[in-house]
Amino acid sequence: MNDGKQLDRRSFLGLITWFIGGSIGAGYSIPAIAYIVGPAARKEEDQAWLRLGAASKVELGTPTLFKIKVERQTGWITNEKELSVYVLTENGRDFVAMSNICTHLGCRVRWIASQDQFFCPCHNAAFSKNGEVIDGPPPRPLNQYQVKEEDGQLFVLGG
Amino acid sequence: MIAKIANWFDERVGWKVIWEAIFLRKIPKVNWFYTLGSATLFTAVNQAVTGILLTIYYVPTPDHAYDSVQYITTQIPMGWLIRGLHHWGASAMVVLTVLHMLRVILLGAYKYPREVTWFTGVFLLLVVIGFGFTGYLLPWDQKAYWGSTVGTQIAGAAPVIGDWILRVMRGGPDLSAVTLARFFGVHIWVLPASLILLVAIHMYLIIKIGISAVPKKEELA
Q1: Considering chain A, what percentage of its residues have pLDDT values greater than 90?
Q2: Are residues A62 and A11 in the same domain?
């Protein structure tokens, strides 16, 4: 019938069918990918200065825990999240604000006053009062917040 | 190269026979009305794909259903499109199923030896209506709530067992969280399972028996 050089009716229709089918497939896949990754691609909400409390509550030379409530929009739900921040000062003027989230795998660390170190119960990690890694698997020191003092009140930059 | 890979697989899997049986089978000379079944199948695939995507965000409880649907429609990229395809595809599926059935009736395609294909088709129509009925409640807005209230009430009008049917459908005397959860369960598990099973039988028979030809006037004489 045809020696293959020329496109016959049958293979032409075959090609058209594949083309239409491929277009429909792409028409579904591309929006589907956007739909699935959408929330992940969303930018973090704007950061704001969050009030921790009175600077006078911080004991000299000892990390002091502040807990504050932050409102969070997750999907269609608005809920309150608790943010825990350890604040350290050596002179009452310069403050360091540290996250209580272990830099290894995200468990919460706590200050053990008797041992003078932060302890993470998940994998026995230890951090110094400045947040340096003393022991265990964490790859880097505890994260720090930007901190400022205004009228005796401490603020950290977060979201 | 491609032919080589295709042959390698064919030798081990034997897909070419299946491919030929499905897509290269001989059919009589027919008209465009004979594509209504394929069109219906296409809408079914559309409903499956978009429906699976919707379950990624939809939550079937009274305190989250409406908000999660609004979230899909207004916040998620292409969410309006996915929901729109599912919403309009649902109507299209009902319309196409009925048109396909009319073609089969008017051109006598339900007769020997295709009675079983017809029976599975009748059950498929019921499944499609069931999809429409259960899916209608899921957005949990006023239209959904009162539409399903009326719909279940109509089922309750049946003599003797009506009230019992209504209670089973609602999971109690009133439309509630239980109703929403069971409509969702039926919509995404029970009906899809039934649909796949019935479509599989329906398609097997179409391929096995072959489609009917357009009836000719001379054959009557």
Answers
A1: 67
A2: no
